[in-house]
């Protein structure tokens, strides 16, 4: 699936480009454009939650990348380690090894993707659609904002029980570090009922996205402070 998705996605500036591939009798090697690091590693270099303005630019890029795929494909493994940044401040999605052809609703599956970021409907083995990726985006944004995962890390089974039984994670709007617009955006991503969760088209209209898309932020300058340490 990885090569098929990449070939379909080469025109998007929000998805890592394929420069070609080498096929042997046993292996497939895909040559990708050079990116500097993933957001998981950058977050650990920073050592604390990222500034909201940077998270805004990440949101714009990732959401546009996911939306580009929407005609036939959903990612199914949205998380910071699959969001890459280069020294020019470009942010792109990668790793389509488990991406799925998008039917009206995909058949139940809980075996694909990182448990920590899975939407409740996937854990319950219910049919799901692109809104499962929206949930994963919301969890990613909380982690990037707070450098703290919203669910206590233990066994995979314990993690699944927390996702199903605990209230949906939120960012407290009383926290002065974050704008109300950002808190509301995350809330719209993390509705446990898939039917109430925002689609990409709705997320594009929310104030946090609109502000982040229009705002001038030098992501490259910010990135250099940590990558060059």
TrEMBL record:
SMART domains, A to Z: S_TKc
Keywords linked to the UniProt accession: ATP-binding, Kinase, Nucleotide-binding, Transferase
Pfam families referenced in this protein's UniProt entry, alphabetically: Pkinase (PF00069)
Domain Protein kinase: 1-209
Family: Belongs to the protein kinase superfamily. STE Ser/Thr protein kinase family. MAP kinase kinase subfamily.
EC supergroup of this enzyme: transferase
Gene3D superfamilies: 6.10.140.2120, Transferase(Phosphotransferase) domain 1 (1.10.510.10)
EC number(s) on file: 2.7.12.2
Top-rank taxon: Eukaryota
Protein name (Swiss-Prot/TrEMBL): mitogen-activated protein kinase kinase
GO MF term set: ATP binding; MAP kinase kinase activity
InterPro entries reported for this sequence: Kinase-like_dom_sf, Prot_kinase_dom, Ser/Thr_kinase_AS
Coiled-coil regions listed: none
Keyword Kinase part of the UniProt annotation: yes
């Amino acid at each position: 699936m990885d090569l098929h998705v990449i070939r379909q996605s080469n025109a998007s500036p929000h998805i890592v480009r394929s420069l070609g591939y080498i096929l042997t009798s046993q292996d497939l090697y895909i040559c990708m454009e050079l990116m500097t690091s993933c957001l998981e590693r950058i977050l650990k270099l920073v050592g604390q939650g990222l500034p909201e303005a940077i998270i805004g630019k990440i949101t714009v890029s990732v959401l546009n990348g996911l939306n580009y795929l929407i005609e036939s494909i959903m990612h199914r493994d949205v998380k910071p380690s699959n969001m890459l940044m280069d020294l020019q401040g470009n942010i792109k999605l990668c790793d389509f090894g488990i991406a799925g052809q998008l039917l009206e609703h995909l058949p139940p599956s809980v075996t694909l993707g990182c448990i920590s970021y899975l939407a409740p409907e996937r854990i319950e083995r219910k049919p799901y659609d692109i809104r499962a990726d929206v949930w994963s985006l919301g969890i990613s944004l909380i982690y990037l904002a707070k450098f703290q995962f919203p669910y206590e890390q233990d066994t995979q089974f314990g993690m699944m029980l927390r996702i199903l039984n605990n209230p949906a994670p939120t960012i407290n709007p009383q926290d002065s570090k974050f704008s109300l617009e950002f808190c509301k955006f995350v809330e719209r991503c993390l509705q446990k009922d898939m039917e109430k969760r925002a689609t990409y088209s709705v997320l594009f209209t929310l104030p946090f996205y609109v502000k982040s898309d229009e705002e001038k932020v030098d992501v490259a300058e910010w990135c250099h402070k940590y990558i060059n340490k």
